[in-house]
Fold each of these.
Amino acid sequence: MLMTTNKPPPVDDRDGMPEAEAAALYRLMTWLSPAFPVGAFSYSSGIEWAVEAGDVADAASLRDWLASMLADGSGFCDGVVLAHAHRAAASGDDAALCDIAELAAALVPSRERQLETSAQGRAFIDIARAAWPCEGLDQMIAACGGAIVYPVAVGLVSAAHAMPLAPTLHAFFHALASNWISAGARLIPLGQTDSQRVLAQLEPVVVATAKRATAAALDDLGSATFRADLASMRHETQYTRLFRS
């Protein structure tokens, strides 16, 4: 005779996750999800002009363009800024945090990219602070003294919630690459399977860039993706546009 019960089967504690670690993972997955309302879907970081100009025309050219942006362009620079903002916030160094916030805002190469990163940074902080209030976060925000760009916002909020830098940085890069691919998929256009192939092919680039960004000093900040920077500037006067950058 079969016996039934409403009691769940026993769970092996060895297969579980510490409560703090589970909470941190939950927040990272939420904050850096495409569903988190920072407006990332409305920006292309110049990819729209690259498609218009013919530089990006299919999955292979999109992958190459994004790999360069990640490893040698704004992706790497944002990762360095995030890492230093996280460390400054975690150590309570308000002066260093202010300097990093000012430097990050000053390094943005075009008007539309400035709008993109500052608007997303502001939205990220406002929503995270409203839904996940955290002791010390307001002081960190005040220490920045002005506009807070997106990677600085992610760095200081994750530090305020005592999240480790490494998973935060990898989640940030995943979100960045995913949003760029989403823009490319709408512009080329690209199918869902090809989009996921591009994301899979960028995995080693993300891992390597995160490793470099973690170890980099602020003096290592720099970009070699001139065409991508020009694309973000040319987009400002592009005749027809789907995206804000």
Amino acid sequence: MKALVFFMGIIITSNFAFAQKYSTKTGKITFEASVPLFEDVYAENNNSTTIMNADTGDIASLAMVNGFTFKVSLMQEHFNENYAESTKYPKTSFKGKIQNFNKSDLSAKPKAYTISGTLNFHGVDNAVQSTANIYLKDDKIVVQGKFVAKTADYKVKIPKMVAAKVAENVNVNYNFLLQK
């Protein structure tokens, strides 16, 4: 019996060891919540960590909320202190799956895929679906996509005095260059 358990453990462990995992620690995530006639509400984070299992299409991403930078430092301060509350909720994460993904179908020509999963921001989990272009570039996998998130869905409160200056629908873009 001990031998059976031992061999099952080796088989299960070897599946994880041989999985084709691709990752980056320099993934780019941007968001834009601008409205016409007011200052741009735009931020980017170039230090997102993303891991993808090329065998299964599973993908996960993690970014530090205070890593989003704005052109205007005061806007960044308000974002971290009042809206995102980055000391209370320091991370944002996504965990999902690339639908119908097959690494052998990848080429230098971008192919559209649907990614479905759960986005956690501001301590709230919500289902998210995104369209992403995925392709190969120099033996690396490029994943580029976008989706829209609503501030209310993540319990982000926008004060009435600035509500007209910040969009309720936030456009989120991501660009990951993943390598083995």
